[in-house]
């Protein structure tokens, strides 16, 4: 943790993190999902830069995989990486979100997501795309088979290490994150400056260097207006 | 529709394949649903009060000012900083770093601490940081020739030359008006539920309206300082005739692509209004007279629309012929038939240029406030797009066939079809459009090449099982996630998509700019290139002290005044 930067608006968080995800190597549609998750985290009082920057760094460095597959395993489904790397939460969550929608109404539906690199980002994407986890229980699954529901937000960041995640239909399941949107709208959202700089660096990969020619012609206007 | 006569049963909305073509979008005119028009009506209806709370400027016009409006429930303040600007720094571009005036629309009434904080940040614009108490951040530069001319005239006890006033139309022009969370300003959600700011771009339009008032005060102040006892005030009618200029570039184009549902809502409202008018079997009492008078005013307005741009000049010449014909055609017995407005619409459709057709749409709406003004309430955003992963590939193909035939008809293997790419420059994030030169980094293009992406998706879908779900398809093809989401969204919002190739060699981005600016309520489009235009806002609109007047909505087509000294 370093000093806070900001406050930022929710729109800034959406704009920069969507494109930072693209800068890290994900397709734009995945970036859109991560951007929505970033806004959701900010609305819940959680520093989205702290959650997302390491996940994007891992993706950009090639330490997390974007290549995934979905298969049936017994009475459930499994999403896992093709290869030995952990799965990028960005792509895993979008795929899991799709699976949830495809299985809406199936009371016995159950999904195991293997080795997700950033479980909090994963949970945030799921919640952002479904307006809450209502109807679905999302748990971290320990090697011994015990499952810990992702519902105590104060513990989220402490547990944000590569994990297996299970998703199962559960009519009693409620949103993981408490909504504090009004606080974000009234006061803005401070973020960790070091994590935000990582986001900005990845975002800058989506920018095109300016040349004298593009400066003169790219915007279709001159450089002085003294009329 | 009760009380407006029986509608024709077969007048529908114009199809998106006609309405959402760039050539037609680039022929748009303001209508009575435009954002400035609806804001002025609200100001008058709700008796907004206006107060010049602070005007601490020196004899050259440099200093701090605060202009406040009080709505029924809350107040908004425009905090303005003016300073001297070297000529070599005067540019309308995003890459500018200094301006004649910089300002914020503040949520409430700022205290001294707020103004001190803003005095440090606002003049820096994009390099400053702002808080949710700031709803808008903007800047403007003087029209040097008109500002100085009016100062000189007033200081000398004279009114300005109306030809010059008409030729320019404004004392200052804005070069960026930022809202919706830019640089730390308030997010749209903070104000989206307030009645007065629920509509699209209402805080931005309010900021510009207050700024227009300030510019007129400023020019009179500088003239008084220079002319002392000889100085006179600016004629009230000239004040009303002065608008605020705006220079607009490519930044508006990505906006139209990023907000498909919002764009659908705008267009759907206008098209619904048009269909309501065309459906009237008999005209509402007085509406024919109003229409004929408005057409005559529009003729004068268009005659005074002077531009240097050759293409726009030719279009204006065609438009002059069209509107002259319209005046003639509508003056006689042609309107003495059932469904007279539909007759006018069909007459225009069969004979006029696109500019003439779209001007006719604006004119048809003008006498029908009671019939259509409620639609202005539906112009606000609903982000809405969501992916339906359960849809089958076959269903997606059907959607593409139904809504993207225009894209499938383009040969994207032809170099001209993908000649350009859109991008954010590292130079202050200025949006630019350039040839797809590998040295420029086209792999970093903005996702605005909708037609090309649909075409590529269509080819990939051809190789896929029609019964497979979108979710399964995206596991293998995540790069198509955004475009499938968009296609599914557009299927529910048919006016959401521009039906043209935005990376084609022949694309004219200015068509997108004009489309959006017309919805704002702008007039006197003055293209400076195919991707840059100047406009005039609020020209002819009532000043704050005139909002209690009987006809505050009669400024659709402002015309030059004849002023006797």
Q: Give the strand order, joined by hyphens, for the main sheet of chain A.
A: 2-3-4-7-5-6
In DSSP terms (H or I, runs of 4 or more residues), the helix count of chain B works out at 22
Taking all Cα atoms into account, the compactness measure Rg of chain A is 19 Å
For the largest sheet of chain B, list the strands in their spatial order. Answer: 1-2-3-4-5-6-7-11-10
Helix/strand-derived class of chain A?
alpha+beta
Multimeric state = heterodimer
Based on CA atoms alone, the radius of gyration of chain B comes out at 25 Å
Strand content of chain B: 5-15%
Give me the number of helical elements of chain A: 8
Beta percentage of chain A is 15-25%
Shape of chain B: globular
Estimated helix fraction of chain A: 40-55%
Mean pLDDT of chain B: 94
* Intertermini distance of chain A: 51 Å
The most extensive interface, with participating residues per chain, is: A-B, 55 and 70 residues
The H/E string of chain A reads: EHHHEEHEHEEEHEHEH
Which runs of chain A of at least 5 residues are low in confidence (pLDDT < 50)? Answer: none
Shape of chain A: globular
**What composes the largest sheet of chain B?**
9 strands, mixed
Number of strands of chain B: 11
Describe the structure.
- The complex is a heterodimer of chains A (227) and B (565).
- With 227 residues, chain A is of the alpha+beta class.
- Chain A has helices at 10-23, 28-43, 48-60, 89-102, 119-130, 181-187, 193-204, 212-217; strands at residues 4-8, 68-73, 76-81, 110-116, 136-141, 147-149, 163-169, 189-192, 207-208.
- In chain A, 41% of the residues lie in helices and 20% in strands.
- In chain A, a hairpin with a 2-residue loop joins strand 2 (68-73) and strand 3 (76-81).
- In chain A, helix 1 (10-23) packs parallel to helix 3 and helix 1 packs across helix 7.
- Chain A starts with a strand and ends in a 10-residue tail after the last helix.
- The model of chain A has no long low-confidence stretch (mean pLDDT 88).
- With 565 residues, chain B is α+β, with helices and mostly antiparallel strands.
- Among the domains of chain B are: 35-249, no CATH class; 393-496, no CATH class.
- Chain B contains 22 helices and eleven strands.
- Chain B has helices spanning 16-19, 22-25, 35-45, 112-121, 144-155, 162-168, 188-191, 202-227, 236-241, 252-258, 260-278, 287-303, 310-329, 340-351, 354-365, 369-372, 393-403, 405-408, 450-462, 470-476, 481-492, 510-520; strands at 49-57, 63-70, 75-82, 101-107, 134-142, 170-178, 243-248, 420-425, 431-435, 523-529, 532-537.
- In chain B, the strands form two sheets. Chain B has a nine-stranded mixed sheet, sandwiched between helices. A two-stranded antiparallel sheet of chain B has the order 8-9.
- In chain B, a hairpin with a 5-residue loop joins strand 1 and strand 2.
- In chain B, helix 12 (287-303) packs antiparallel against helix 13 (310-329) and helix 17 packs across helix 19 (450-462).
- Residues 1-7 of chain B have low confidence and may be disordered.
- At the A-B interface, strand 1, helix 1, helix 2, strand 2 and helix 4 of A face helix 7, strand 8, strand 9, helix 20 and helix 21 of B.
- Strand 9 of chain A pairs parallel with strand 8 of chain B, so a sheet runs across the interface.
């Amino acid at each position: 943790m370093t000093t806070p930067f900001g406050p930022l608006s929710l729109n800034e968080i959406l704009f920069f993190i969507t494109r930072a995800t693209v800068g890290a190597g994900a397709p734009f549609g995945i970036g859109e999902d991560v951007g929505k998750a970033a806004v959701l985290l900010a609305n819940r009082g959680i520093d989205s830069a702290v959650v997302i920057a390491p996940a994007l760094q891992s993706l950009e460095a090639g330490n997390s995989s974007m290549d995934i597959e979905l298969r049936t395993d017994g009475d459930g489904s499994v999403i896992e990486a093709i290869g030995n790397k952990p799965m990028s939460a960005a792509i895993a969550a979008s795929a899991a979100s799709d699976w949830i929608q495809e299985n809406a109404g199936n009371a016995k539906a159950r999904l195991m997501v293997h080795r997700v690199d950033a479980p909090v980002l994963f949970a945030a994407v799921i919640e952002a795309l479904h307006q809450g986890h209502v109807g679905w229980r999302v748990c971290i699954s320990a090697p011994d088979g015990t499952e810990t529901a992702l519902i105590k937000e104060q513990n989220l960041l402490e547990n944000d290490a590569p994990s297996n995640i299970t998703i199962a239909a559960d009519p009693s399941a409620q949103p993981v994150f408490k909504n504090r949107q009004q606080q974000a709208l009234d006061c803005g959202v401070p973020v960790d400056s070091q994590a935000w700089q990582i986001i900005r660096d990845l975002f800058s990969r989506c920018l095109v260097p300016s040349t004298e020619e593009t400066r003169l012609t790219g915007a279709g206007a001159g450089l002085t207006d003294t009329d | 529709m009760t009380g407006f006569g029986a509608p024709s049963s077969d007048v529908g909305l114009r199809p998106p394949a006609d309405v959402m073509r760039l050539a037609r979008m680039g022929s748009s005119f303001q209508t009575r649903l435009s954002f400035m028009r609806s804001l002025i009506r609200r100001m008058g209806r709700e008796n907004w009060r206006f107060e010049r709370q602070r005007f601490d400027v020196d004899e050259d016009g440099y200093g701090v000012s605060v202009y406040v409006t009080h709505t029924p429930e809350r107040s908004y303040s425009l905090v303005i900083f003016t300073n001297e600007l070297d000529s070599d720094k005067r540019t309308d571009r995003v890459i500018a770093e200094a301006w004649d005036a910089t300002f914020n629309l503040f949520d409430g009434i700022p205290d001294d601490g707020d103004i001190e904080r803003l005095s440090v940040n606002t003049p820096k614009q994009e390099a400053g940081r702002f808080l949710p108490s700031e709803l808008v951040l903007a800047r403007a530069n003087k029209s040097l020739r008109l500002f100085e001319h009016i100062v000189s005239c007033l200081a000398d006890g004279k009114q300005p030359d109306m030809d010059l006033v008409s030729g320019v139309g404004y004392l200052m022009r804005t070069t960026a008006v930022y809202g919706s969370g830019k640089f730390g300003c308030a997010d749209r959600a903070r104000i989206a539920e307030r009645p007065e700011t629920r509509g699209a771009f209402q805080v931005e339009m309010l900021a510009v309206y207050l700024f227009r008032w300030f510019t007129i005060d400023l020019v009179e102040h500088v003239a008084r300082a220079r002319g002392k006892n000889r100085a006179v005030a600016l004629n009230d009618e000239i004040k009303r005739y002065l608008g605020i200029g705006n220079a607009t570039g490519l930044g508006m184009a990505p906006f139209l692509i990023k907000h498909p549902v919002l764009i659908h809502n705008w267009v759907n409202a206008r098209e619904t209004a048009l269909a309501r008018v065309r459906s009237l079997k008999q005209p509402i009492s007085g509406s024919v007279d109003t229409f004929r008078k408005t057409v005559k005013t529009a003729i004068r307005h268009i005659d005074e629309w002077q531009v240097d741009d050759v293409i726009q000049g030719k279009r204006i010449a065609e438009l002059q012929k069209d509107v002259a014909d319209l005046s003639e055609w509508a003056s006689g017995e042609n309107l003495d038939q059932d469904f007279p407005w539909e007759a006018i619409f069909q007459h225009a459709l069969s004979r006029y240029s696109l500019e003439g057709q779209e001007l006719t749409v604006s004119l048809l709406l003008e006498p029908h406030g009671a019939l259509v003004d409620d639609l202005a309430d539906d112009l606000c955003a609903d982000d809405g797009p969501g992916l339906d992963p359960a849809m089958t590939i076959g269903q997606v193909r059907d959607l593409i066939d139904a809504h993207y035939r225009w894209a499938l008809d383009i040969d994207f293997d032809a170099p001209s079809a993908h000649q350009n790419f859109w991008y954010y420059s590292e130079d202050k994030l200025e949006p630019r459009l350039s040839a797809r030169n590998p040295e420029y980094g086209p792999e970093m293009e903005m996702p605005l090449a909708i037609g090309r992406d649909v075409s590529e998706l269509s080819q990939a879908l051809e190789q896929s099982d029609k019964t497979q779900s979108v979710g399964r398809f995206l596991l293998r093809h995540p790069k198509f996630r955004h475009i499938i989401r968009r296609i599914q969204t557009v299927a529910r919002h048919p006016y959401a998509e521009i039906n043209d190739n935005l990376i084609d060699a022949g694309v004219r981005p200015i068509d997108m700019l004009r489309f959006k600016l017309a919805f704002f309520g702008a007039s006197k489009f003055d293209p400076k290139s195919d991707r840059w235009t100047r406009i005039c806002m609020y020209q002819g609109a009532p000043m704050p002290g005139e909002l209690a007047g009987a006809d505050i909505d009669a400024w659709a087509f402002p015309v030059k005044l004849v002023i006797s000294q």
